[in-house]
Catalase
Amino acid sequence: MDHKKGQQPHKDMKDSQLEEFRVSDAGEPMTTNQGVRISEDEHSLKAGARGPTLMEDFHFREKLTHFDHERIPERVVHARGFGVHGYFQVYKPMTKYTKAKFLQDPSIKTPVFVRFSTVAGSRGSADTVRDARGFATKFYTEDGNFDLVGNNIPVFFIQDALKFPDLVHAFKPEPHNEMPQASTAHDTHWDFIANNTESAHMVMWTMSDRAIPRSYRMMEGFGVHTFRFVNDKGEAHFVKFHWKPLLGVHSLVWDEAQKIAGKDPDFHRRDLWEAIETGNYPEFEFGVQMIREDEEFNFDFDILDPTKIWPEELIPVQRIGKMTLNRNVDNVFAETEQAAFHVGNVVPGIDFSNDPLLQGRLFSYTDTQLIRLGGPNFHEIPINRPVAEVHNNQREGYHRMTINRGQTSYHKNSLGNNDPRPVSQLDGGYAHYQEKVEGRKVRARSDSFKDHYTQAKLFWNSMSDVEKQHIIKAFRFEVGKVRSKSVQQQVVDMFANVDLTLAEEIALGVGVTPPKAKAGDEASGTTMAGGAETKASPALSQLRTAMSPATRKVAVLAADGFDADEMKAVLAAFAEAKVVPEVVSENLGMIAGSDGSRLEVMHTFLTSDSVLFDAVYVAGGEKSIAKLQGIKEAVNFVTEAYNHFKTVGASAQAAGLLSGSGIHLADPAATSGYLTSPDEDTGLVIRKETEDAGVFARQLVDAIAMHRHWGREMQMIPPAKRTD
Ligand code: HDD
């Protein structure tokens, strides 16, 4: 079970440790929890078939008692989440900076367990709500567990952990009526924001597309806080941790996200589950930004302030390793629900900084597990066990699994040979970094934390026009749902300190007075040196992210009589590019192509929906197209994909169907619809009569790789509102 001394961990080590706890019931007789075989499981024991149930029915009592206790308290935040296994490999030894063993040897595969989550919603809430996403990674290293408990947003709402309960009370459903679920679009949240202006920077991120990711596989992860790397000479560097998805950073659009919440509330977990089941393993590169100890005060932000990023252009992210997620859990409760992450789980070579938010988290995570997992032995639950051996004098408590042998359970002792004994740093003993600290005991915050707007502005300045439009709309939606005019006005006045146009647009949308204050005025808080207000950090825009068609889900709309040659060429191009096609038609079963070949239908227009796909391909073939054109849901399917800026591929034969969807091909006279020519739209891939099916298929794949075709959205925005 636990790995033997001197043996290095490998990626299967956690798996084999879990193996001891796995149970298969296949072919086994049913028993009670005492192992007594059960002969009957449908009728309780009664005095006569219509008589009272008897207390002595031990099977009934046990089954009901267990059922009554099957829930544990959900996480107070991040209640809804999904976990998967994988492994991590470093690219090159990081010995110069850290002695952490899992960051030394590129041949070692360290097992990991990752839990992705939303923050605000209950355990049964929808996946696609607007929210930050948790990105918590447990590395089962040779030196013990290292937990990186981060988010997909690199900053946080508050600077001091003492305010965390207030923040969470404000964004959770309001206490008097428990509404709304999994949403910050309500009065108390925005009242908190307007009265706690340190939140400005993170709010810019939560109102951006980052808060509606397309997939857990397509979002960045951030450790948020400043940590320390410490090498074997005791030298330290400040470090920030990053996860960079190889598929790039991609998002949903807001209308789509809301509809998916109803059509498939499990959208993100299904996406992750299916990707892993089909061998499309999500991959994330591990990045570090490092600052020398003597550079601590060289920046126009305080590196201890968790509401600040270290702009990548200033301090580059070095990619030092890669994580591959390749195994789904066997049982969600046993693994994901019982996983206990703790930002304080560090290994030699990794240490903390004095970030007051981080320091407060060090208390909260163990405390919360005590109530959730019912006692101090939660580290013995299979998913939480380190692969490193555990020896100490801790005994007893609820649900103790280990049977510790021997007479002594204290240190120091003579009766037990003074074992287990602390060891020196050379033997792997953890030694805290010896930072010199002095000060008065004060309840105060450093002046260097008082700039609340410069980086919020940096974020805004770094957005493309289309991203800015999304932010404006998100604010209008969220603040538009606030009932208090006073709170709405406060929000508008607050964000005037970030950008005046942004604030004016919000004011217009929610019907309050446009702000008078200008960004950069006194009211905007202390502006730090460096004139950062006008700067941009290009790395913050999603438009610069990696583009790939791989694992994109495409709805193939087809009916009997589809063009078999075209279909063959398209499916071959999809397979080569790892695009995932799924056939949608009127009924389940098989459909026949022009050459009699048969294709299985995976979804109908009732069981599926346009919002669940990344793109649509309307198969060629006059008969098939004519059939689809007569189905209202099929026409709507295409309309919606188009309106969500997705790739739409079709043959020119489908002009009638497309026109019903508001897409008019090469018809300069068209007055409705958004585009008149496919040439203007990178996402409209139309196969002309004579065009080779293979060429068409490759163009389709290229368009799918682009993810969205924002030119279409900019055309949809009335000219007066366009910022270009
Ligand atoms: Fe937290 C859970 C991330 C601030 C207290 N947090 C939790 C999880 C993630 C984060 C990803 C879910 C872990 C899992 O999947 O089980 N939290 C963050 C980040 C923060 C942050 C990135 C700011 C940088 N958290 C934070 C503060 C406190 C907490 C300031 C309290 C002082 N967080 C908790 C908690 C949770 C938690 C109450 C709830 C369930 C749990 O810990 O296990 O202790």
